[in-house]
Amino acid sequence: MLTRKPYVFAVAGALMLAAAACGSSDSSTSGSAAAPASITYWASNQGTSLESDKQILQPELDRFTKETGIKVNLEVVPWSDLLNRILAAATSGKGPDVVNIGNTWSASLQATGAFVPLDDTQLNALGGKARFLGPSLAATGAPGQPPVGAPLYSTAYALYYNKHMFKDAGIADPPKTWDELVADGKKLTKDGKWGLAVEGASVSENAHMIFTLGQQHGGDLFDSSGKSQFDSPANVAAVKQYLDFIATDKITNPSDAAYSNGTEALQDFIGGKAAMVMWQSASGTLKTGGMTPDDYGVAPIPLPDPSSGGKQVDSMVGGINISVFDSAANKDGALKFVKFMTSKQTQQDLNKAYGSLPTVTDAYDDPAFQTPEIKTYQQILANTAAPLPQVANESQFETLVGNAMNQLFADAASGKPITDESVKAKLTEANQQMAG
Amino acid sequence: MVVSATSRPGGGRGSGDPGRPPPPSGGRKGRIIPRLPVRLRRLGLPYLLILPALLLELLVHLIPMVIGIGMSFIKLTQLYIRNWSAAPSAGWSNYHLAVDFNAPVGRALLHSFLVTVAFTLITVALSWFFGMAGAVLMQGEFRGRGVLRALFLVPYALPVYAGVITWSFLLQRDSGLVNHVLVDQLHLFGDKPFWLIGQNSFASIVVVSLWRWWPFAFLVLMAGLQNIPRDLYEASAIDGAGWMRQLRSVTLPMLRPVNQVLVLVLFLWTFNDFNTPYVLFGKTAPQEADLISIHIYQSSFVTWNFGTGSAMSVLLLLFLLLVTAIYLLITSRRRSDA
Amino acid sequence: MRDPKWLKWVRIIGLGLLGLFTVTPIYVMITSSIKPLKDVQGDFHWIPTTITFSAFHDMWSTVPLAHYFVNSLIVSTIASVVSVVVAIFAAYAVSRFRFAGRRAFSITVLSTQMFPGILFLLPLFLIYVNLGSAIGVDLYASRTGLIITYLTFSLPFSIWMLVGYFDSIPVALDEAAKVDGSGPIGALIRVVIPAATPGIIAVLIYAFMSAWGEVLFASVMTDEASRTLAVGLQGYATQNNVYWNQIMAASLVVSIPVVAGFLLLQRYLVQGLTAGAVK
């Protein structure tokens, strides 16, 4: 009659068996201090796939191991997961030693205290502040505080244009002003093709463009006391200008208002559906898509008239930083790794593979970085790029403003009239939702 | 593969060794365990039976829930995420923020809540109806029955991501099948409508959810129908009942316990569904289809405001508790009347 | 039960429409997996103009698909089987015994269905990290943690459904078994479980599928080694391009064993049982 206990044991035993069987085959996250030293590195997805990223990084990691004897446990984390995983690691104290972060996250992550700030000694070990590109270094944390990472890859926005489509439309040179861009766009919009492609439902793309255009209209997203002012006249004008590509200028396909995954506008450009696109360092993707420098050209995004009172900014400073976790098991190894990744050879190898720009000035002597495209980017980064506001609630700003833009784009695409009032109303709502 | 053979389907093995008669004391295993007084064993048995379930629920659901509720009373932002005990108390301010319907945050939350209620009611009703129709129509022998049954379960077998991503593909404005059929082939509209942004996005999320959930209702109702004894139908046929009458007076009443559970569970799951809107719309949903799970995710995970997000989740929980309590009150009252 | 004439037509139309609704996305998945990526991103055509199987080849290397598949299979199978066993015991207790705390237990189990996942995601994660280091078994970023999580997630509904099924099996059957000399557990094994087989199968399928498709917890609680398909498929949407054709191909391939399993098990769903009838 007493038959219950064996079943309970059986269940408990099954659970333990399962736990043992499955637990033993999993990798542990942080390296141990004893025996062969190692570090764990979470890389971001920069290439065409997670596997191709591994293939690009592995030779560099092997070189690091040869030089220092420290083994690197690599994991390439897709962007959809990266912030969640970093959050989990910051919360629990259990995570990798080194990680790539999007540089717009710097100030937010800095505020968590989970990352090692690089003081002057450590920066000097990396070659000193002057070795890094100014704008890239500015995008590593709030001003006045030590940076929480070193810039790794640099990107900026530029205007990509299809040389063949331009020739067919009789346009000789890429546009230098916004009026020229709209006029060219109108000439190029015919036969099912469009002048300009935009990623209208991508929160980050929208936030970046609004920042840039807002600067051009003379406005800032945050005032001097740090309070948000998304609905200032300058920002309203910026948003309206961007929306008008669909609404009034009609040089952008209304379908673009649904492009949300960060690839569609560029794919339209590759497929010849759009003649222009404003994008960050796209050469790697364009090459994979079969385009060569004969097919496409790169020009700076138009700047405003100097007399209009706006700032001469045509791009935000994009890029990836490499940061060390404060809870890292092997901090020394991690810092050595950062030094390695920002060293000249590594910078040249990786940025060549990814089509981005080195963040250190001494890496530019390689002929691969002397192409017209890279030189254009260098100019932009050096002269007309500005970092996004380095405030702790940067991600909140991106979400709120980006979301407002998504909704406005949807309105524009469905034919609703876009006026200064309707734009201001949406931006005011976003502004009010910014918690103090 | 693991554990005792008793849980395996198909009765045969579970009945014990076919060749050995059961010993008089009731089971071979009874001899291995020291005997306690029968009364104690009998009293303790149900508690032991529910113990594994209780322990697991405590570990995975209940204790984290309590911690989550605690989170809603502190200002948990990125500044304190590493050290929760240092986070300043927020008192009720997170809740105030969520329910202040005059302020944008509260207003957005209310809007999202109403959208979700509408979405859930419509989806559950349609899923149940489709599941019921499918299960009832599948009774009886006819050609192709097995194939059809397997086919209906396929959406359920597909990974969620794949199924929903395929729908987002079908609903693309320029290159999707839906617009291809509606505009290019059937000429129902002049201009290609948007399905993933704007007003139609609500219809889209309902259709995609329906496509995902109705096979589940179908599965559950099919199993439920199997348990209705044949002789009840025979008895009612002798009384002169036609097909429809049998449906009303035999099938539906006998399915009541199953339906009770099914409808409630579908409601709760659909209300809380995160995967479907997340894959269909990406991280940010259009306003017309701003389901509450995505909305809370936006307000917390994405913006590092965990205190606020927790408060919103607790409010959501309270609402669902209320709904469930009312539902159970109504349905059990009916049962006691019946 | 003689079916009326009109039922035949209702059946054809009703099941036909349901079939169409179900099959259309699947058809798109199949044709998209054999179209080249450019065609997939271009205008839609019912019949593919070019056919290529490159997606089925590339999909193994773009993302470690085989590895994710094995992880998903292990996690889902163990979680569902253990969940059903635990649920059977608990449901039997609730159905057959009037014990103190029975109501409280049912309500507690039921109430967990209302918890929004986001609310306890972060706390659960913290518990796993701390508990894991305390007992020495990796719970975070491991299959074990996922298994425990998923088996608990499917527990409330499984218990609930099984209580319903067990309730509909007359106690007289239990009594009959006890007369033959078995205890309550014997009655459970010999009579109740066989009688409730369709319900058990349905619950097993439900538990398996809910583990198979869960995304939110899998994305936070796994690392490369323990990642499941549900999250891993997102790897086809990269920085530069979304490899639609590979997503479709991968989904089809990983679903074949699952669908095959369904086909095997559905026999039990329709087994005409007379268990409910006590003569």
TrEMBL record, chain A:
Stored InterPro entries: SBP
GO cellular component: ATP-binding cassette (ABC) transporter complex, substrate-binding subunit-containing
Extent of the signal sequence: 1-20
Gene Ontology molecular function: maltose binding
Alphabetized CDD domains for the sequence: PBP2_TMBP_like (cd13585)
GO biological process, any: maltodextrin transmembrane transport
SUPFAM superfamilies: Periplasmic binding protein-like II
Assigned keywords, A-Z: Signal, Transport
Similarity annotation: Belongs to the bacterial solute-binding protein 1 family.
Protein name according to UniProt: Sugar ABC transporter substrate-binding protein
UniProtKB/TrEMBL annotation, chain C:
GO biological process terms, semicolon-separated: transmembrane transport
Family statement: Belongs to the binding-protein-dependent transport system permease family.
Name of this chain's protein: ABC transporter permease
Transmembrane segments: 12-30, 68-92, 104-127, 147-166, 187-209, 243-265
A GO cellular-component term linked to this record: plasma membrane
Organism whose genome encodes this protein: Planotetraspora mira
InterPro entries: BP-dep_ABC_trans_perm (IPR050901), MetI-like (IPR000515), MetI-like_sf (IPR035906)
SUPFAM superfamilies (UniProt xref): MetI-like (SSF161098)
Main location: membrane
Coiled-coil segments on the chain, per record: none
Its membrane topology: Multi-pass membrane protein
Domain ABC transmembrane type-1: start-end pairs: 69-265
Record's subcellular location: Cell membrane
Sorted UniProt keywords: Cell membrane, Membrane, Transmembrane, Transmembrane helix, Transport
